[in-house]
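Incident log, structure service

09:12 report received: a user says their structure output differs between two submissions of the same chain.
09:20 pulled the input from the user's history:
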Amino acid sequence: MARKLHRCHRIGSLRTRKLLKRKVSRVWLGQPYPLGATWDGEGVNFALFTEHADRVELCLFDEPGEQVQNVTVPEQTDQVWHCYLPDARPGQRYGYRVHGPWEPTKGHRFNPAKLLLDPYAKSIERWIEWSDVHFGYRVDAKRADLAIDKRDNAAQMPKCRVIDPAFTWGDDRHPRIPWHDTIIYELHVRGFTAQHPEVAAELRGTYAGLATPAVIDYLQELGVTAIELMPVHAAISDRLLLEKGLSNYWGYNTIGFFAPEVSYRSSDAVSEFKSMVKTLHSAGIEVILDVVYNHTAEGNHLGPTLCFRGIDNLAYYRTESGHPRYYTDYTGCGNTLNMGHPRTLQLIMDSLRYWVLEMHVDGFRFDLASALARELHDMSRLTAFLDTIHQDPVLSQVKLIAEPWDIGEGGYQVGNFPPGWTEWNGRYRDNIRDYWRGEGGVVGELGYRLTGSSDLYARNGRRPVASINFITAHDGFTLRDLVSYNEKHNEANLENNNDGESHNRSWNCGAEGNTDDTAVLTLRARQQRNLLATLFFSQGVPMLLAGDEINRTQGGNNNAYCQDNEISWTNWELKNEDRSLLAYVQRLVALRRAHPVFRRRRFFQGQAIKGAAVKDILWLSPGATEMTQEEWDSSQARTIGMLLSGEGIEEPDTRGNRVLDDTFLVLMNAHHENVPFVLPSLASGTRWVAIIDTARDGGLKSQGRRLAGDEYALEGRSVVVLTQPSATG
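09:34 re-ran on a clean worker, output below:
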């Protein structure tokens, strides 16, 4: 039945609408596959899955967004409603109205008054104009979500757009950088270039901005091999945030799993994203996407009806057993996608393959991955989601990173994902933070974290690269704030500082926040260098938060998800201390990339291998003797030496040749007092050369050459790296 639209104003000419109507006058049956809107060069096939619907209408809009035609979808095959419009073309705006039972107590929330986005839309235009009409129920009624709201919301809804997928990729190919050579740089598309002086004003904060020469040169000089983009799937900013003058800046509020977020475009979002990937690949840099498949922007049962809820609520969302009016929420965002339904699983797999095959991305970081992997209410076995990815010939070959936790019972699953997966190692983050803020009794665990966390990953055949090592990430303090604040300062979020993590494992070095105290500032700078050195000289895969290398601060805000402003954006007006830290990080990255002893493919064995004079790794106390179990267990232990033998790398290179490297000695002192550390004597040589000392100017100056048996003055709260060059080095 035709419905009168509520319009804010009349846009577009009658002639334009008549032409559009004439173009789509023919409606053929079409095909149930592929799902979504597919341009084949002659017309467009539309296909929409819904298991419980009675009828589906395809709504067509002109370019300004006025609805010009409703098409009753004529055919349904295996629960997929489909039609083919031979006169439709790329650029056509569209949405759906889905008819079916309104029975919230049974989990059905069909409401044809609400225009719905296509779950498979490749492009979603405009932003939502928030009002009560987007809610499928009467917000002013008693037991509100049970009373249907029949007001039309089309005028305020974003529209899907048919795309032409053609793009000249040329000889673009995935760099396929091995995991052990990978260095990840996590950044936000808008925030990274929003204030960049060498990026044209019209390109700042866009996909194109990340592909400019200034940004590419910076990434290459820094030495990272992959950028991990915070969510770029089409997302919705929460109504309450917008009413406060804020927005969902991070983008963890997805509404379209195939469409790139349009607020990051300077031209056509799809082609601009592809051009960005192609440019980064040509510079040898991989692109990893942070993806949010655990929930959608529709919230709980009182949320708006924008897409999945109105298409088939029971199929797409996990509902409470015996009470399908309500959602099961393992995400803290109101809903959890129903991975137990084959069509929901298909949606996610199709989305992942699309971003690899059509958009050429190189991997994914899965937000709250435990929520995806749950089998009913636990994670006792490999689930359909993990099984399907494992056997997929496309997805099993890209980089897969799990955030291995959710908020549900038993959701903390660090170390429990299967082979083929890497994980954000939360145990690494917590232990390294605790060690450098001076906590006692953590040295025993520190040994595992520095060497790739074999206690977490070796038991199921995984290797050190399963551990994505990080100290800071988008969620929490920046590195600068980690050493500057004991408490969170999230007042700008307008939640009375009640949001965000309260236990940050941070230390302000003697003053909270901004200070002119030279001693405090000097210690903070050293602590940053300590944490960074630990990160890059640990086995596993390091991940650096964008801006940590240039002292980026959020003013103590550890939950800046809603701050699309200077709080979150990277500040490119670098002071001398910022440039000094940048040079230091570049040096650390260069050392890691030059020396395979820091990026081993297999775990240490703690013993000498054939042809080597010493063990592959040796743990030393300040007296140059091997650490005893008592020293490992001591609550007072805060100083440790880690000797990495360049002769003890047991894995061969790609040609089967034995890998040799320099031998390195990493000394770490988290105690506030200086500790004289005796340099060990090795059969391969007696000369040690200090190349990093975080207690000295910028971390790059040191006490120079030393002989075995000499004492190195290891200052309080410092890291020193010494080397014995190999015979071939």
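09:41 both user submissions now match this output. Likely a transient worker issue. Closing.
09:42 reviewer note: The chain is about 20% helix and 20% strand. The longest strand covers residues 55-61.
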